Structure formats: C-alpha cells, structure tokens
Amino acid sequence: MTDMMNNKHVRVVVRTRPTTRFASQAIEIIPDKNIVNIHVPKPEDAGFINNQQSDWSFKFDKLLHNVSQDAVYEECGTPIVRSLLDGYNGTLLAYGQTGAGKTFTMTGATENYRHRGMIPRAISQVFKEIQARPQYAYTIRISYLEIYNENMIDLLAPVGQSADMAVVEDKNGCYVKGLSQVIATNEEETLNLLFEGETARSVGDHALNRSSSRSHTVFTIHLESKSRVDSSDDVIFSKLNLVDLAGSERLAKTASSGKTLKEAMFINKSLTFLEQVIIALADKKRDHVPYRQSRLTNVLRDSLGGNCNTLMIANIWGEADHLEETISTLRFATRMSCVTNEPVVNVQYDPMTLVKKQEREIKELRQELAMYDTLIGRSHVQYEPFTDGQKAELAKRVRAWFDGTDDEIEIVTLRQVKEIMNVFKGMYLQWAQGGDRCELPKAGGATGPATAGGMERDISAALEEEDGVGETEGMGFSIGVAPVSGPNGRRKVINKKAPPAAKKEPFVPNAASRQSSTSFVYGSSPAPTTGTTGSGGDDAGHSPGGSPEVQGASRFGDQGAMGPVGIPALQPLPPIPARAKPDRNEEFETFKRGPGKDLAQALIENKRILRDKKRALVDLTARVTTLKASITDLKTAVARDRDQALQADTEHDPALYSAPIPADVQAKLDSLATLKADAKRHLEAVAQTKSELEYAARVVDTCRERLVREFDAWYLQVYCDAPAPAGVGEARPTSVAERRTAAAAAAAAVAGMTTDASVADPLDLAEQFDLMLNDKLMEDPASYSYYAALKRRQRRGAKPQARTLM
Ligand SMILES: Nc1ncnc2c1ncn2[C@@H]1O[C@H](COP(=O)(O)OP(=O)(O)O)[C@@H](O)[C@H]1O
Ligand SMILES: [Mg+2]
Description:
Number of strands: 15
Structural class: alpha/beta
Number of helices: 22
Pfam family, one: KIF9
Number of domains: 3
Bound molecules: adenosine-5'-diphosphate, magnesium ion
Protein name: Kinesin-like protein
Region (Disordered): 479-567
Distance between the termini: 102 Å
Family: Belongs to the TRAFAC class myosin-kinesin ATPase superfamily. Kinesin family.
Keywords: ATP-binding, Coiled coil, Microtubule, Motor protein, Nucleotide-binding, Phosphoprotein
C-alpha cells in the first residue's frame, strides 16, 4: 500500500512559489526537515511592552521549495491517484493566497507541457494505471464544479442547460445532484473536459466581471471498478477531488466595497468553515462536524476527513509583502495536518452480481443441509422449490389428512410448511369461488365456512368425544352405518346395556349392527338399511326391529330426500354485502324452510323417531307391568287352587298327590308360563328400546347441532358476505346478479312455504341454546374456548335429561 495509506492524518505539503524576492531574512526554509521558521522583526516603535509573537516554527509532511511540477506530482499526486485506483477516495486541496500558485499547482500552465499541473497529471496517471490493470473493468466519470459566492456552477454542463444542483448524501456517500458526470474513456477526452471547464470558467469570469481567484473549483474523477477475472461481485467506487480553492487572503488586505467585498466575505466565510470543519475533524471528542455551513465543506464532506486520503498543498508566496498571509497559510496548514483520516475502500455491490452471489450461497447451503440430513439419517428432506408434480402430491396428502385417511403429515422443512399453507389457500380460494366441491375437504362434517365452520367443527369434535355417538362424517350418519373411527369405548357401553336376549339381533350401534332395521336419519344416510330382521320376539308391535315407524324412517332415506353422499343438498344462497342482519331466530325458520329444509326434515324425522321410541318404551313398560300383574294374578289363583286342594285333603290321601293336576289348574299354570315368557321378552324389549331411545336422543342432538351449524354458515354467507360453506349447494350462481336473484328466489320460496306444516318445528330449548352460543361466538371469536366449554357443560347436562325423558 502507498505511503498515503499509512498516514492517518491529513497530509500537508507546503509549496513555495519561486520568486527572486524571497524574504530570506524572515523565512527560513529547512527542506530536509520539512520545517519553515518565520521571524518577524518587532516594529521599533512598539516599545518594550510589545509582546506580539514574532517567531514561528512550522513542520509539515513535506516542504517543496522551488521544485518542479514533476516533483510536486511525485510527492502529492502519485500516491493519491494510486489509492484512487485501489478504491480509496482522495482529495487534493490547493490552499493559499491569490498569486501563491494554487492554479499553477492544480492545473498548471497550459502553454507548457512540463508545467502541467496536478489535474492533467492525475488524469494521465489514472489511464496509465488502468492500462496496467487489465483484470479490472473501469468506468471513469468527470465532474467539474465551481463554487462562487455559495453558488454552484456546473462547468461541464452544456451551454444553457445547467440544472439545479444540491448536495445530497446517500449510502454511497455525498454527491452533487444535478452536476454533470461525463464519462471519459481516455486521457484525451478527459483533458478536453478539463479544458472545457476552464473555458467555461473564464467565460463566466468575463461575463460576471470576476476573478477566477474568487471561486473554488472542484475537479472530480469518479472511478468505478469491477474485477474481470475474480468471481467477486464487488464494485468499487472511488473518487478523487482536485480542489483549487479561492484565495485565502484576509478581508483586511483586499478590503474594498461592493461586489469585491461580498466575494471576499464569501471566500472568507467558506474558508473559515473549511477550517472549522477541519478543526472539528481533528478533535476526536467532537461528534458533530459542521459540514453544512458552506457549499464547499458540504461538497467535500466525504473527502476532508474520515475514510479518504486528504492532502493539502499549502502554497506560499515567500515575499516580504505577503509575510502575513504566509504565516496565516502556514498556521492553517498546521491545523489541517492534525486531522486524522482512516481511509477505507468504498466497496459496493452490483445488484445483479449480488443476486448471483446469493444464489450461489443458497445452493451451497442447500448442499450443506442435504449433507447434514444424510448424516443424521434424514434422506427425504426437500429444500429445492417444489415442482408442480410434488405440489400436486402434497395437495393430495393434505386432502387425505382432511378426509382422515391420512393421520399425519410429517413436517420436515419450512418450505414444505409453506407449500401446505399454499394448498390450504388454494383450497380456500377454490371453495370461496364456488369451485369444484370434490376438491374440498370432506372430513369432519366440514360443511361450514372456514370461519365459524372451523370453530363449529372443533366444537363438534369435542362434543363427539364427549358423546361417543355418531360422527359428523360427510357421509352422514345412520344406525347401522357406524363411524369408521367411532369411539370404541362408547360402543362397549352400549353393548353392556344391551340385554342378553339381544344376542338374537342385538341393537348395537356399530359396524356389527348393520343388520339392525332401525335407521335414524342424520342429515342423510347413504341408503339406510331397511328393517329386515326385527326378531326381538313375536310381539311385532313392540319389537324395535319391526316397528313400522322405523321402517318409515328407512323409507325416508330411501326416498332420496338426502344427497347421495349423505349431505343434504342445501340450496345455495349467494353472499349479500353486509347489511342489517335480521333476527336470527326468524332467519332460522327461513333456513329450515329453505336451504336447510332437508336437514330440518331429517331432524324432525329423527325427533319423531325419538318420540316414537319413547312411546314404544312407555307401551312396552306398560305391557310389562300388565304382564307382571297378570302373572301375579295367575300365581295367586294357582296358589289359591293349591290351598283349596290342600284344605280339601282332610284325610291326607296319598292318592291325591299322584292324581293328575286338574285341567283348570293346568291351564292356569300354562298361562303363567306363557305370561312369564312374554314378560321376559318384553323386559328384553324394554332394555333394547331404552338403548335405542338413548341413541335416538343422541342422533337428534347431533342432527340439531348440525342444523344450527349449517344455519350459521348460511347466515354468515347471506348476511356477512362470507364464503359459501363447502358442500352447500351443488349448483351455485356465479355472478353477483345470479346470486342475488337466487337469494330473492329462495326468499320467495321460503315465504311460500310458511304454511308447510312438514317443517313447522319450533325451536326447542336445546336449539335455542345452540343458537345463542353461536351468536356469542360470532360476536367474539376469542370467546371460543369459554363458550365451547360452556356448550360442553350444557351438553353434559342435557344428556341425562334426554335419557330420563322416557
Ligand atoms: N511554482 C511555480 N512556478 C512557476 N510559476 C508559478 C509557480 N507558482 C505560481 N506561478 C505563477 O504565478 C502566477 C500566479 O499563480 P496562480 O497559480 O495563478 O496563483 P493562484 O491560483 O494561487 O492565485 C502565475 O502566473 C503562475 O504562472
Ligand atoms: Mg488561481
């Protein structure tokens, strides 16, 4: 790295303008030690109390006394330009009073090649360095700015096209917005730009009647470099500011009036601010640097201290007349040399190459993960994006999970989770748009919408766990078609309750009971089994199996009142934008007469079956009571006959004991046996009917719950513009107009059906309670847990009631 890099402070080089009138008595130059000593003789009239300082000693990084442009460039230009090519920002400032040689130093005398200054030499070196570094691709842009009386002038702007400029700062550093940055591809082009700018400057001087020494100029070489060979995606941006400052002479010396005074004040201010900035930069304790006080400091804010190489050439004019300015310049230069810089390479990233780099990194990380998985024995983990085929396969598995045919989807990667979420989303959207119902989840009685339906499903599942009866499978429910995954525990309980006589044709609501003739209608049933056995006894009137009402229930199923897959085909109602929601109880009635008609009828039918079972049980119980009474009567009669016979046997005739039983007594005994057998059958029937009754009560509960749930879904859909519940309706209007027409038609149909006694089934207490709970849930879904628990408690409480209704 260059010397420049090793210097942490701003380098200050003092250059003297050659003159034959050098004030050698006052100025002592010690070039070897880079020291300038100044001795100012005290004025003789000042007397002995004159305590003004008269001797100064200044030490700098380099003292260039009467040296050539070559030597100056070698000392100041070469390292800073090399740093520029390495990616470091640089600033080279020429400071000093007017006539001290700043412009000569920076631009040089254009008429003589040997006298060319730092700028043309820097340009030349930049292109030479570029040629020497073919492994990098460079882009060079040039800007040339003049600051005059705090105004910024774009010296490279096409005539009359100077834009508004402002100093802005972003993550790439600070720059002058609106200032031309002209791409230059070779030394000549770049020099042309320099001269073009010089011309523009002199034209401006002439037009404005000003001296070029009254303005600051900043010639900037912007460099962008990128490796051609390295796989690195770094793009390095660097810039070199070559600053020819306005004359630093103090106001007093050029004191005048009008325009000159104004110029002097601006120069004075900007250089004062430059000095303040430099002092602030030199003071490590200060965290605020007042860059914004002047255009100059603002433009150079990222080039005076911090991460760049800064070098100041202090030009002094070593004549006695300019001693004061020389001292002032040297003092300023000394302060400048205290500023510490820590140059860093300005590496930025090209977005495209950055993307490539990150892609490469991702690939490597995936490989690493795959290796890790192999090591720990996980071989099927997928980190690559899912292909369409894999997505379809995953979607299938998700549906299987919904249907309950797949217990679990093993989660292996975040990507897989995201894909699953996408499947859910796709299903939901399809559902919301009324797409193919077959694509929808079918399990868990998923007939409600995603909102309330989800909660209802959970509630339902919880209740089913409690109840152990039936299953809200999409396939509907009927006795004889037990749920595939129905709770076994519950089955056992029912089996225990079944009387021994049930061995013949036991009433067991599980798979073994498929032969049972009892069919409850739960929403619907896939071709419910018709009564075929019913061999509970010869008392067909009391036999559950042979009861005509039960067969009626079967017919109900056979009549095709239910949908083919067991879900009542609710008539679809399209969403209507939220509006005043009518009374839910009234709407429940509407629902039961309209879209929920089949389900309502199923509920009514099941309730009817329940009532009939209760009646049958009452009848059976009464019959048992009658039989028991008859048996008791007969027993009494037989006992009476026996007593009479015993009383008649006063002789204790042994022949009496071997004599045949009198016919009338035998008849009584036969009757007694028959009655006992009949009573036994009836008792068995009572036990079986009790089981059926219990089961019927549960089916009614479940059916009611489903009706309410589907009503909620429907209500949400109609009045809250929620998505249509899955499985509700086969043919669905697509357009809004169609949906509204369908809504109107449904309403009209309902209105016309109000006299339909078949569905006139007022809310019972349980239905009202369910409706109330669902209302609450819709008001505040967060209350789900509370109400689910409440509902469960209510259901628990309701169960014994239902059982004791008999
Ligand atoms: N090192 C030098 N060698 C020869 N001539 C110089 C040198 N420095 C300055 N001059 C001459 O002095 C004059 C004033 O210099 P200039 O660079 O215009 O001063 P400034 O820009 O500081 O006002 C010019 O004519 C210039 O040629
Ligand atoms: Mg000048």
